[in-house]
Design goal:
Among the domains are: about 130 residues, TIM Barrel; about 150 residues, Rossmann fold (3-Layer(aba) Sandwich). About 35% of the residues lie in helices and about 10% in strands. The chain has 18 helices and 16 strands. The strands form four sheets. A six-stranded mixed sheet has the order 11-16-15-14-12-13, sandwiched between helices. The protein has a five-stranded parallel sheet with strand order 6-5-2-1-10. β7, α8 and β8 form a beta-alpha-beta unit. The longest helix has 18 residues.
Amino acid sequence: MKKVSSWKELTLREKIGQTVVCTCKPDEHIKMCGSVEELLKKYPIGGIFNNGANINGLDTGENEGFKNLVKEYNSHLRVPMFTVADNGTYASKNGVNISRQMAVGAANDEETAYRMGEFQAEDCKKTGINWLLWPVCDINFSKRSPITDIRSVGSDPELVTRMVRKELEAMKDNNVISCLKHYPGTPYDEHLDPHLTSVDNKTPLDFWMANYGKMYKELFKENAPTIMTGHMNLVNYQNDEFEGKYPPATMSYDLTTKLLREELGFKGVVITDALCMGGFTGENALQNTIKSFLAGNDVLLWPSFEYIDEMERLILSGEVKEEVLDAAVERIWNLKAEYGILEQVDNSSDKTTEFFEGIANELAEKSLTLINNERNLIPLDQNKIKKVLIIGVTPSDKQFEELGELKSEFEANGCQVEMRRNNISPFDNTKDSKENDLVLFALCRTPHMPLGPLDFWGNESASIWASNTIDKNKTVVASFGSPYVYKYYENSNLTYINAYHNSKEVIKAFVAAIFGKKPFTGISSVELI
């Protein structure tokens, strides 16, 4: 299909379609309209989201497979699509996993932050992603939030600003669109997850301005191309109360247009968080989607296709001014032009596995944080540590399997290793401590694995209990996820380490460090207690 040279050549439905990023579900699209071509004639979308799913045998995370799918979609559109992914760590099949944002904060090194941005950008380019919904720039004021935790850099706004600035720079240098999220930031000391329900942000306005407001202004100076509005409000700023409630930023004109654009000076493209979340959707989902666009969001993430029909009706009836749509489409067009999307510039990556491994290993080594070593167990004496018992503490089957890399690494260091999951008794564990030279409690609790509050329950709680009753002179506790599980060990004087992630790269660096082969250089980028 012949491409257009200006957004002004687009039909009304094509302009509305530019504001839509839908999920990559070609099977459903074909079922709806008979073919992808017919769907795109009716709903000429502006972008597609790589949700890492298997669709009719196509693994959308497989590099060439997704690229070929995008080529097919683009062949039926007059404006090439945004190809969007979240976070980046699963976008490509490069075979290397990397730590989350908190490891960048713990490394406390701007060059490493830049390298993190390089990893994410090149990872996206491997698959054909041109817009990554990353980096998270939430400030970790809450010790209970599953939205911040290891997904954020830390609790110091200046540290967050420094690290995220370098990540933005790296993304731009590598020609992949970045996205700050989740504006206006997670509430102070709030534990609710907007995936599950709506969240009230009651942060005092002066505190918000001095921290989030200041950070956003600084990051906007770096020409941040996009920002994501979240399903949380900021009640102490808003005046747009409706039926006794203040809408989230995704639906708030006060927050998205007045505060974000007019006061803070953001000039780029604004995208909503996913419109399927419990903090947004429901019986009024279509009306809420319209409100989101009218609030000042340029791009809507996963709206129903009905939105295009309804927005067309509203504009043709005069209920919504077409000028509002035009302003959004012009911003979208300019963003696509800036990143070579309109010209379909070849943006593939030639980076090898060694490139990705190098960055992942560097971040793993620099972020490991030794919190408590008062018993001087670290470094371990390799001549004395021959029998090791590892207790994996996680509610996730997948993460327990991944923690199994610990067994392999200890065995590579000449140890005889037994590994268990949550089956140590808090009442009588003297036998385990007598029969082993080291007992390692490997804790792993991370956002959405599984969904819910970030804490331990049931058998995992029993293992925490057991860790505090065993011989402390033979015990090390390490968190390969949330750092805040340290709350269980503040008063126990156990040797404790925060590793932030359970990838094989982190585990390898961890074992090397506790045997003294690498130094612990990470800082705690959050207040643990």
